[in-house]
Amino acid sequence: MLKDTLYTIQTLQNSDNAIYATLLLNPTHEIFSGHYPEQPVLPGACALQMIQEVMEIAFDQCVQLIKASSMKFLSMVNPQTDPVLQLKVSYQEVEKLQIKITATLNCGQTVSFKLQALYQQIMKC
């Protein structure tokens, strides 16, 4: 889990089939020393994991990525200059225990990451 080490959740709201969260990056996290030493950038895999972790907290249920139909990295996230991220996850249940989502991760007004995916709710984490 990256929560409480790489980032913290400042706000979280789950209503009307949408999750809204404000996330605060930890610019001193060790991952940024290697990605990249002179120009720290949030790794795409971490953005994907952050979305999953926020979903699990909002649903109070573990989820597993089944299929990412679209994943776009649109702009770099520098934790030193832009540590506050806004996450929106719109979701709908498409089959029993399967959730289709559309997610965006923003730095201010700039969309940094977009995801359209299918997740499966699972019993064990």
Automatic annotation (TrEMBL):
Any single Pfam family the record assigns to this protein: ApeI-like
User: Could you cite one Gene Ontology molecular function of this protein?
Assistant: lyase activity
Output the InterPro entries linked to this UniProt entry.
ApeI-like, HotDog_dom_sf
Which superkingdom does the taxonomy of this entry point to? Bacteria
Q: Where is the ApeI dehydratase-like domain?
A: 13-101
What name appears for this protein in its UniProt entry?
3-hydroxyacyl-ACP dehydratase
